[in-house]
Amino acid sequence: MAPKAVILLSGGLDSTTTLAIARSEGYDLYAISFNYGQRHRVELNAAKGVAEATGGCNHLIVDVNLRQIGASALTSEQEVPKGRSMEEMSAEIPVTYVPARNTVFLSLALAWAEALEARDIFIGVNALDYSGYPDCRPEYIEAFTKTANLATRAGVQGKGFRIHTPLISMTKAQIIRKGLELGVDYSLTHSCYDPFPNGKPCGRCDSCLLRQKGFEEAGVKDPIVSGS
Amino acid sequence: MAPKAVILLSGGLDSTTTLAIARSEGYDLYAISFNYGQRHRVELNAAKGVAEATGGCNHLIVDVNLRQIGASALTSEQEVPKGRSMEEMSAEIPVTYVPARNTVFLSLALAWAEALEARDIFIGVNALDYSGYPDCRPEYIEAFTKTANLATRAGVQGKGFRIHTPLISMTKAQIIRKGLELGVDYSLTHSCYDPFPNGKPCGRCDSCLLRQKGFEEAGVKDPIVSGS
What is the pLDDT of residue A130? Predict the structure, then answer.
């Protein structure tokens, strides 16, 4: 029997590629997504589509209301910045930063992993072409792993958790090439922070711009077209 | 202006005492509770009552559905053990253990603390008269603090978080005496894992038994009476 892995799946480009990598490594797949009050809730439809297109993938969408906490442009009515240069993006932690989001999400993934008796958790964090979030760095992942192994029955019993971050030192272009190699259908994914009411990407938020740059550098056409 | 503190408040004896301690230390109080699909949801009414009785205490109840994850007698239809001896309770991690619960709750408390620009988080974990949960130990709290300071914008900016565990080395009797000193009204609290439909405690689950033992050892009468 294949070992089980829990994969954090937002429905975006990075997490979808991460799911494909976990699949290529032979894991029994348990994708977890979060209905957290995000402005771009449409990403959950993408996550469902990606999970369905990945044969044998289980999928759980957990409700956790981060809109009650707010303090982010993604979980409030605060405006999402548009048209920023790469320099502007990397100058500081952006207003789309959601306080402690990866810690909340990894905790819930850890809870599910423990419930499933899985030891492997995959997360598509990326410290290179990232958007300046502190909870995407390797030292953070290492600290969380240590916490996870002290927090849980499984950890106490010596069945420690491993957190896999296969994208951590890849550029967006490398991620896309890797995904295409593994047969990922990027037309199913959604990256935009501030989509139009019809669900189409704005084409101008940090996430859209990083995605465009990635496809350009990979020399591939993005199957998703921006605009209303 | 007093510094803000986020206090995890279940509505039980330990967290209510912790709130009183944070108050006595002069913090501006932000209590956080969780509607997590717990069998004993009635504890949220206790949490509300305690917060209201604590002058100037803000209160947030965050929805996070751990029943979707299950694997605990507190978040499923699995039976809650009754009438166990102290030896049985400390022999192993009980079925009321909720996978990664304190990590999920501390993550959400951390998110709120960051949103509020608070640096202090209080949690009423207790490593002595506890019920065998791994995420109540000092080494766990230390690891979580390190993770928190790597995870967040505040941490990166050198405004590190402190996690206060004032009860960690106290017995239940000491906790009760401390609370009474600080004027805590324990009639407002709820400890039972498996209350009767009318909300009254069962008197026989681990949590009820630890509470009874605490009041006995403190030489004080529990203002709450068990039974249907």
Answer: 56
